[in-house]
Amino acid sequence: QKEVEQDPGPLSVPEGAIVSLNCTYSNSAFQYFMWYRQYSRKGPELLMYTYSSGNKEDGRFTAQVDKSSKYISLFIRDSQPSDSATYLCACRAGTYKYIFGTGTRLKVLA
Amino acid sequence: GAVVSQHPSRVICKSGTSVKIECRSLDFQATTMFWYRQFPKQSLMLMATSNEGSKATYEQGVEKDKFLINHASLTLSTLTVTSAHPEDSSFYICSARAVTGGLSNTGELFFGEGSRLTVL
Fold first, then answer.
1. Which member of A43, A102, A105 has the closest CB to residue B111?
2. Between A and B, how many residue pairs show a Cβ–Cβ distance under 8 A?
3. Cross-strand partners of B23
4. How far apart are CA B75 and CA B22, in angstroms?
5. pLDDT (tens digit, 9 = 90+) per residue, A2-43?
6. Among B69, B103, B92, which Cα is nearest to B10's?
7. How far apart are CA A57 and CA B63, in angstroms?
8. Gap from B113 CA to chain A (nearest CA, Å)
9. In angstroms, rounded to a whole number, what is the distance separating the alpha carbons of residues A24 and A55?
């Protein structure tokens, strides 16, 4: 079993839809949870960072962590074609080693 | 956010030659940098952890003699793919973690733009 599981997609939604992206993890030592956005042939860009359980909102993006169920989510409101990218979740314990999910490819259709 | 610069963004080389990729943190100091490899439609695979002033720590299955890493300063790490072969063709990405201060309080990683290596 992978430490971080993520559905690779692709996920296609119409413009303006609410997008829900999810990951599950198995290591209960993980305390830090990140979401990265990666456009084709580019490096990942940090979108959201969350410590422990709870919600964090930044503009159209909301990150949610439920440590009891080892489930992390990223919600995108009013999705735009420019949001089309691969979204990677990442988890980290106390060390600096990040464990990444496989990434979910998102397509927002105009 | 912090800026990590990676160069070259794209390189094509002949089989048997060596290729060097540079990773620079432009506006912060990084004691630790990471090198990843990414295959099409797959996630990031950590190859090694580069520590300033000491030897890199390689992940299991990564040949240290094949992928030479040098972290000579707090702002520069290099990855050299030695005697490259077509199977080494891939997208290589570096990331950096800041030393101290605001950027490192959250332990965030900042990524370079990646380098696409094609070995003919």
1. A43
2. 54
3. B6, B77
4. 10
5. 889 998 889 999 999 999 999 999 999 999 999 999 998 889
6. B92
7. 41
8. 4
9. 16
